[in-house]
Amino acid sequence: MEGVWTLRSLAERVEGRVIGDAALLVEGVASPSKARRGEIVCLWNAFDTASGQKTDSPEPSPEAVNSSEGVLFLAAPEFFARHADASGVAVEHPKKVFPLVLALFSRALRSGAQCGIHPTAVVSPKASVAPSAWIGPLCIIEEGAVIEERAFLHGRVFIGRDCCVGAETTVEPGAVLFESVRTGRRCLIHSNAVLGCDGFGITPSAGEAPPEKIPQIGGVVLGDDVELGVCSTVDRGTLDDTVIGNGTKVDNHVHIAHNVRIGRNCILVAMTGIAGSAVLEDNVIMAAGSGVKEHTRIGKGATVAAKGGAIKDVPPGEVVSGFPARPHRENFRVQAALQRLPETLSRVKKLEKRLDALLPDGSGGSGAGE
Length: 370
Fold this sequence. Notes:
Blueprint: E1 5-6, H1 7-14, E2 17-19, E3 25-26, E4 28-29, E5 39-42, E6 72-75, H2 77-82, E7 87-90, H3 94-111, E8 116-117, E9 122-123, E10 128-129, E11 134-135, E12 140-141, E13 146-147, E14 152-153, E15 158-159, E16 164-165, E17 170-171, E18 176-177, E19 181-182, E20 188-189, E21 194-197, E22 202-203, E23 212-213, E24 220-222, E25 227-228, E26 233-235, E27 242-244, E28 249-250, E29 255-256, E30 261-262, E31 267-268, E32 273-274, E33 279-280, E34 285-286, E35 291-292, E36 297-298, E37 303-304, E38 309-310, E39 319-321, E40 326-327, H4 328-339, H5 341-358
Parallel strand pairs: 4-5, 5-6, 6-7, 8-11, 9-12, 10-13, 11-14, 12-15, 13-16, 14-17, 15-18, 17-20, 18-21, 19-24, 20-25, 21-26, 24-27, 25-28, 26-29, 27-30, 28-31, 29-32, 30-33, 31-34, 32-35, 33-36, 34-37, 35-38, 37-39
Antiparallel strand pairs: 1-3, 2-7, 22-23, 39-40
């Protein structure tokens, strides 16, 4: 049954090795101090055989994990070698595997084994809903929409014409997918996110005529494992699609404008804004409150620091900050110089007064900096 894990199935999913009874049920994930029978504790502070290093934090023993018997462990093989009575899953890199384990149980909590269509949902007879999917109360599914296997739509979700919600994707309450939005597998669309809204295609008119609106007829495409935060928006393209690549994570209150193309495994933190037709290559990080000008390219692995504004292309791997965004070290020097500016102006004025006193015609340049 979906959402139920044994040590065997969990070990297969994380490519680990079962220690103990493979049929034991894993009932959840917990911190060491609060773990109960059947819950698994990740000991990522244990010796990590992948890196060959050990962190400064001490490794807890099974006896130190709460007081309950039957607690399970996700840890490096060396841990189980030292604690022969412990059961769990041995992996070479516990810290790297832990987010995957959390995601498995988070998805189970969100969806469980529920499937079908709530009686208050409105589903077009021309829509396709997989038998294993769930359509929650008061959802609206329009003509031509496709809801794939084990997708989970919470209440009051709107899915427009010709949309496709990928397998195992979760759409939380109040989210809106307008027409021609396609998500990949295992995406997570948080509450009140809007995808496929009308792009802000506006061109100024001559004289006093109002600005002219350019129709937007493209769509939105999300790759696999994309996350879109609460109240974030993704505009549809003018002709082509707005695209977000596999594994990219978008925080709350982020705006992605029409025709933007975002690569794989990018991170966009809250309040970020990406203007129309900008390109973010793979592994880009946009920190909180940052922005990118239209038709600008951010190179692979680059970072725009918090509140940074990129108004020209950023080379791959570069870290930029400030407005306009410049290389981070250079921006630090500029900010340091600005901090010294009042003192510098004061010294300049004193020097001008001394020059005025030395030059009989008073041409020492007083008034500079005023």
